[in-house]
């Protein structure tokens, strides 16, 4: 145990040093963006809860269902992200060679790494869950005791998926040490999805009927009559019970807090025991089974040499050969296909043109946020992934401006393909009105162009040339800033576009006169915003590389 | 014409002065070896000449081109081997070489055979078609060194060339350096291996705490220090400089 504290202390020290040496600009933007995001989501949740709780009869029930649903989604997302990050944290980290050579117990190494994995996998969820919990407490006028208990619950809760994921990965690798990273990730994702589906089918078959309800009223009734969404055996339900119980000073809140605490502790201890049995063994075994693959023909060989083509081809090759990259990209794609599919299965909205239009606006907002996440995960690390190879580019006659331009255009291409495909498919499914159908893809072009630029800009301004794991690069302080800046950009764009959208709805469905000045000025403001959000980050990107010392 | 002219070069990191008032001129066919204790500023000097670190003051002129004013044109004459060899993990050595050839616009027919000869000479063998993530330190170093023969640079900057190389390869590397010198290239090498320095250097420089204390050939240095043994010369000159500053 003493060793564990020692290791933990040295890890915490590194984190603290990296914060204190961060530089004023980085630190301030970090704090500013996080604060904006927390406050923004707090405000959003506050509005949602205030509205829902004011709905007669079914309001409170709906609120509880919404919270249960959110936590259930968090829980499955946490399982996913823990499995994905644990392979690299527990097996693929260079630091492990050093740690295992120290005279410390492997279990101490495990615990430190577990905490690291827990933080990496759950920060994004926490940053959403914390404002949600506080907003709920404020709207329900919960007693003071509510806040410390529920926040503690939010912090403890992600330990369970972290412990589960590490147990799973250890057993899998002990049994099949020859598995490649991508097989493990794919296998576990399949398993998690299948289990989630089965679990929902068994504990709450009614839930899956959600997609088949005919109209809005039926849906609301259905939702408020559901007893629980996750079922009472899932930690996410306990967490929502903590919120509900404590907000009314009911004893059940304390009961579920205790339950959550005991189960997290038990899961961690169990994972600790599994690690004691399997971790080092499997780590050693994996080292022996490095796959040897030879490429007789070099894929980077072209008859006539062109710097741009060679550079792009190199990026493609490295992407394709790095399983964490394309596995996450495919997961991302699967989730989106599921999303569009579920839109298709929700016919209740589509009987009614006003609803259809509202849904298509909401869909646009959702897709913009999706692209923002995509940008942080795949575009933000693009410059850092050049790693120490940046010396080569820096001392070569290929200018950084050109490198940034190539990275920008190739990533923009990808982002545009994704955003337009999503938008067009979903609008076909929703059967959006013609005019909206044609305007949205144009606006989406701006959104994609800005988001790629923002992520590339922050990625070059705050590069991590020592890290080769793109998920970890994206989870660093620079990545958080980029994520929140992207989300802020999307938020501001949506606020600007809300005016013309509202105007359009009012004139189309309520026969109000069209207010052209409002529409045109909003569009002008939007274009102006985008000139800034495309131009400035790109400028920052090439300047920070040109003036950097490597 | 001098291949490299460095005038009053200085670099300050935040408030640490790493290199200070460095003047140097290198001619074609010269092997210049820079010696100095850890943290003396060797790597920083080399990186400034390679265009990877921006000088706080001073000028670097490569083949008559000012690096600061025309970085791209100047860099076309440089070949650089860093102290920590890096190749993209998921590329094979051969792909890495092809990648660099592409960036420097070198046609395939112009380098494939030549490269194959160097791969063989440096004992890279079949490793060239493996992912570089499996390379040892020395293997990476060798592949990166092959890169120097692609675009035919006039100024070759090498940081710690011998680290991680086996004796046989060290010998080959030495021969290759001599060949390059005989072709009229200029080599600028930083090293801690004194015997190697003695064998290859046409001129030696000793840097300590960011200041270039002495330059000259072995004879000049032994006159100054009053010894013929390179180890003694080195110890004496770096010693003097550190005590002189106090
Ligand atoms: N990026 C940087 N930021 C701050 N200080 C730096 C940076 N790079 C180098 N230094 C400092 O500059 C000084 C010179 O370092 P340099 O790497 O040039 O030494 P060196 O002669 O190459 O040493 P060695 O023989 O150990 O390789 C050192 O004091 C070092 O701490
Ligand atoms: Mg050095």
End-to-end CA span of chain B: 39 Å
Distance between the termini of chain A: 40 Å
**Radius of gyration from the alpha-carbon trace of chain A, in angstroms:** 25 Å
Helical element count of chain B?
9
Mean pLDDT across residues of chain B: 85
Could you list the spans of chain B in which at least 5 consecutive residues all have pLDDT below 50? none
Q: Would you list the SSEs of chain A in sequence order as H and E?
A: HHHHHHHHHHHHHHHHHHHHH
Helix/sheet category of chain A: mainly alpha
What amount of the residues of chain A lies in strands? Answer: under 5%
Tell me the series of helices and strands of chain B, N- to C-terminal: EEEHEEHEHHHEHEHEEHH
Main sheet: strands, sense, barrel of chain A: none
Strand order of the largest sheet of chain B: 6-7-8-3-9-10
Structural class of chain B: alpha/beta
Structural domain count of chain B: 2
Low-confidence segments of chain A:
none
Number of strands of chain A: 0
Count the E strands of chain B: 10
* Rg over alpha carbons of chain B: 18 Å
List the helices and strands and how they pair.
The complex is a heterodimer of chains A (about 550) and B (about 250).
Chain A: H1 2-20, H2 24-54, H3 59-90, H4 95-101, H5 106-139, H6 146-156, H7 159-175, H8 181-203, H9 205-208, H10 216-225, H11 235-247, H12 251-288, H13 307-321, H14 323-344, H15 353-379, H16 390-394, H17 400-430, H18 434-461, H19 470-475, H20 477-510, H21 516-546
Chain B: E1 4-13, E2 16-26, E3 31-35, H1 42-50, E4 57-62, E5 65-66, H2 71-75, E6 78-81, H3 93-103, H4 112-121, H5 137-146, E7 155-159, H6 167-182, E8 186-190, H7 194-200, E9 203-208, E10 211-216, H8 218-225, H9 230-245
Parallel strand pairs in B: 3-8, 3-9, 6-7, 7-8
Antiparallel strand pairs in B: 1-2, 1-4, 4-5, 9-10
């Amino acid at each position: 145990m003493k060793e564990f504290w020692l290791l933990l202390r040295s890890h915490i020290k590194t984190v603290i040093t990296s914060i204190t040496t961060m530089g004023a600009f980085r630190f301030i933007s970090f704090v500013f963006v996080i604060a904006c995001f927390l406050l923004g989501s707090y405000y959003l949740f506050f509005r949602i809860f205030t509205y829902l709780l004011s709905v007669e009869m079914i309001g409170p029930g709906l609120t509880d269902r919404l919270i249960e649903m959110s936590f259930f989604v968090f829980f499955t997302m946490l399982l996913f992200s823990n499995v994905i990050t644990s392979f690299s944290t527990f097996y693929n980290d260079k630091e492990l060679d050093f740690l295992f050579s120290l005279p410390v117990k492997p279990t101490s190494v495990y615990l430190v790494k577990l905490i690291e994995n827990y933080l990496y996998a759950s920060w994004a969820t926490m940053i959403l869950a914390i404002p949600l919990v506080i907003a709920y407490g404020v709207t329900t006028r919960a007693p003071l005791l509510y806040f410390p208990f529920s926040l503690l619950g939010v912090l403890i809760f992600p330990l369970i998926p972290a412990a589960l994921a590490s147990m799973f990965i250890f057993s899998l690798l002990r049994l099949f040490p020859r598995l490649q990273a991508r097989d493990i990730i794919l296998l576990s994702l399949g398993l998690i999805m299948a289990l989630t589906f089965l679990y929902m089918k068994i504990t709450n078959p009614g839930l899956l009927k959600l997609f088949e309800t005919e109209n809005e009223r039926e849906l609301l009734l259905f939702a408020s009559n559901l007893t629980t969404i996750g079922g009472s055996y899932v930690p996410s339900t306990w967490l929502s019970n903590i919120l509900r119980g404590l907000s009314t000073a009911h004893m059940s809140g304390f009961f579920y807090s205790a339950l959550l605490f005991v189960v997290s502790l038990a899961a961690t201890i169990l994972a600790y025991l599994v690690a004691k049995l399997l971790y080092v063994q499997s780590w050693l075994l994996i080292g022996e089974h490095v796959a040897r693959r030879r490429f007789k023909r070099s894929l980077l060989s072209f008859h006539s040499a062109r710097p741009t083509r060679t550079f792009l081809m190199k990026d493609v090759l490295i992407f394709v050969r790095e399983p964490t990259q394309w596995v996450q990209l495919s997961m991302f794609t699967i989730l989106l296909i599921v999303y569009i599919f579920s839109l298709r299965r929700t016919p209740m909205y589509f009987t009614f043109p006003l609803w259809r239009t509202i849904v298509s606006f909401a869909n646009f907002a959702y897709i913009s946020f999706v692209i923002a996440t995509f940008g942080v995960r795949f575009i933000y690390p693009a410059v850092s992934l050049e790693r120490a190879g940046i010396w080569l580019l820096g001392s070569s006659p290929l200018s950084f401006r050109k490198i940034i331009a190539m990275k920008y255009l190739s990533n923009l291409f990808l982002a545009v393909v994704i955003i337009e495909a999503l938008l067009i498919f979903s609008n076909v499914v929703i059967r959006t009105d013609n005019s909206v159908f044609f305007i949205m893809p144009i606006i989406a072009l701006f959104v994609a162009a800005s988001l790629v630029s923002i992520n590339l800009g922050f990625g070059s301004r705050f590069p991590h040339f020592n890290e080769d794991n793109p998920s970890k690069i994206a989870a660093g302080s620079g990545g958080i800033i980029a994520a929140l800046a992207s989300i802020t950009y999307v938020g501001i764009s949506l606020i600007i576009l809300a005016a013309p959208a509202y105007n359009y709805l009012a004139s189309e469905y309520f026969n109000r006169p069209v207010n052209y000045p409002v529409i045109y000025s909003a569009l002008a403001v939007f274009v102006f915003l985008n000139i800034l959000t495309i131009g400035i980050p790109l400028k920052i990107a090439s300047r920070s590389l040109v003036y950097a010392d490597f | 014409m001098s291949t490299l002219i460095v005038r009053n070069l200085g670099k300050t990191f935040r408030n640490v002065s790493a290199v200070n008032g460095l003047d140097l001129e290198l001619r074609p066919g010269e092997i210049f070896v820079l010696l100095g204790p850890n943290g003396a500023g060797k790597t920083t000097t080399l990186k400034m000449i390679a265009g990877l670190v921006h000088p706080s003051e001073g000028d670097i002129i490569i083949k008559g081109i000012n690096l600061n004013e025309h970085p791209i044109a100047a860099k076309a004459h440089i070949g650089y081997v860093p102290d920590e060899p890096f190749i993209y993990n998921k590329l094979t050595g051969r792909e890495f070489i092809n990648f660099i050839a592409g960036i420097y616009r070198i046609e395939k027919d112009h380098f494939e055979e030549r490269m194959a000869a160097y791969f063989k000479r440096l004992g890279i063998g079949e490793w060239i078609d493996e992912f570089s993530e499996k390379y040892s330190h020395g293997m990476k170093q060798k592949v990166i060194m092959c890169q120097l023969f692609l675009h035919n640079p006039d100024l070759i900057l090498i940081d710690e060339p011998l680290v991680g190389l086996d004796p046989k390869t060290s010998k080959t590397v030495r021969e290759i350096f001599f060949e390059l010198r005989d072709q009229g290239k200029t080599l600028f090498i930083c090293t801690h291996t004194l015997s190697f320095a003695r064998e290859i250097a046409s001129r030696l420089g000793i840097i300590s705490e960011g200041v270039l204390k002495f330059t000259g050939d072995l004879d000049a240095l032994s006159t100054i220090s009053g010894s013929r043994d390179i180890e003694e010369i080195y110890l004496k000159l770096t010693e003097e400089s550190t005590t002189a500053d106090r």
